[in-house]
Design brief:
By secondary structure, the chain is an alpha+beta fold. The protein is built from 3 helices and 7 strands, in the order H-E-H-E-E-E-E-E-E-H. It has a 7-stranded antiparallel beta sheet with strand order 4-3-2-1-7-6-5, with helices on both faces. Strand 5 and strand 6 form a beta hairpin. The longest helix is centred in the middle third of the chain and has 14 residues. The radius of gyration is 14 Å and the shape is globular. The two termini are 16 Å apart.
Length: 139
């Protein structure tokens, strides 16, 4: 697992990926807080509310699923850490919004369109550091 970035500060860290890395994909270790259906228009306030609600659902004694999130020029893959296989994939064209949570800077989310179900979904993740979250949102 490649970790990009050098310091865990809240200032802007511009990731330095090569074109080949972006095509292959950059991996981030994440905890998956789940997804929620968006009832209306997508915006940062709505996303923040969903982030908070998803985090509240996870109690300290519950196991939060861990994945490798592979972000590439073609989309985002959820890679199962045990099997090393993609369990879910969203094409870049299906991702409409990426947001970092203001209350917890290690949390971020993105909004996707599930074409099969005709739904907009907000997926919520937590990385190990604020820098990783910033980089994942910048990819």
């Amino acid at each position: 697992l490649e970790e990009h970035g050098k310091k865990d500060k809240d200032k802007a860290v511009m990731p330095k990926w090569t074109q080949d890395e972006l095509v292959r994909g950059v991996d981030y270790a994440v905890k998956y807080y789940g997804c929620a259906k968006l009832p209306g228009a997508e915006n940062s306030k709505e996303t923040a509310i969903i982030c908070d609600k998803q985090q509240e659902k996870i109690k300290k004694d519950q196991k939060v699923p861990e994945f490798r999130l592979r972000i590439s020029t073609s989309g985002i893959d959820f890679i199962d850490v045990d099997t090393q296989k993609s369990t879910c994939r969203y094409e870049t064209s299906d991702i409409s919004f990426v947001s970092r949570n203001k209350k917890n800077l290690q949390v971020f989310s993105f909004i996707t369109t599930d074409k099969k179900l005709s739904l907009k979904l907000c997926h919520v993740f937590k990385t190990n550091t604020r820098t990783q979250t910033l980089e994942a949102c910048s990819t």
